[in-house]
């Protein structure tokens, strides 16, 4: 079959990769908008610790996390490119000792259906210092061995290389889909309203602070208090995030207020450490009215895939695989029809 995909973020690239791998004719358009969420995403793969209660969303991200090792191995072997994917484990911070056993029980209850999450344990300050020496030990913590991270920009580069290598076309310009040329899939993220009106898309500005410390190792992901997170890229490079700013603007310039807020957080998590080379990154994170990913079949020739939000890097590869399977006479594991806008329920 013939497909035109509009939007070259993680959703569009994942769909295009799986379609072309399954033998379809694929052209993907990406106009290189500044603020594309995939390019700046921290890329944490650890859906099992989320407190979101929506079962449909959790099935998507749980299945996505289970698929990740196979997906990455195949992609890296095909292209020879690195994606930054590592199973680092995750330090999980909580506000007090009262919450800690409740969180342990909640996360552990998911292990039977998700053995890929690894082992969950209480983390003593001594053990935490061994895992992540410069990190504060002020907060009660758990450690989950199966959590990991991927570099969004590197993953996108590898997917683009694979798509072209397998015979797909990647066009870095504004999309001009041709009518009557198969199926058009709109995966335009925060810019989705430009192309269609059936699925209303809103977006948030997500700002991250990149900094360096004197260190050479890659450390575990840190899931901090509230929605804070820290990722370690190696060679002393770290990022902390993120802000959640509702906006109608597409300005991807960082703000002094966000930099100050994130710097204060970094100092809280790394007390007494000298933070250097402070740089900001800004992404525009799309979401839908019900805060769930949407797969909307507008008509037989048009599909909208959007709203993956902060779980995009976890969810997009399996979503691409399942969509391609649906068009390739292969078994489909996820209930794709349930992701239609009118079918979804409250995603909070």
Word description of this protein:
It is built from eight helices and 17 strands. It is an alpha/beta fold. The protein has one domain: 3-Layer(bba) Sandwich (FAD/NAD(P)-binding domain), CATH 3.50.50.60. Strands 4, 5, 6, 10, 11, 12, 13, 14 and 15 form a nine-stranded mixed beta sheet that branches. Helix 1 (10-21) links the parallel strand 1 and strand 2 (25-29). The longest helix is centred in the N-terminal third of the chain and has 25 residues, at 55-79.
Short overview:
This protein is α/β, with parallel strands linked by helices and about 350 residues long. Helices cover about 30% and strands about 25% of the residues. It contains eight helices and 17 strands.
SS summary, helix count: 8
Question: Describe the biggest sheet?
Answer: 9 strands, mixed
Unreliable segments of 5+ consecutive residues: 344-348
Q: What order do the SSEs take from the amino end to the carboxyl end, as H and E?
A: EHEHEHEHEHEEHEEEEEEEHEEEH
CATH superfamily: FAD/NAD(P)-binding domain
The radius of gyration computed from the alpha-carbon positions, rounded to a whole number of angstroms, is 20 Å
**Principal-axes shape call:** globular
Q: Beta fraction of the residues?
A: 15-25%
Q: Compute the separation of the termini in Å.
A: 37 Å
Number of domains: 1
Helix content: 25-40%
The first-level CATH class is given as: Alpha Beta
Average of per-residue pLDDT values: 94
CATH architecture classification name: 3-Layer(bba) Sandwich
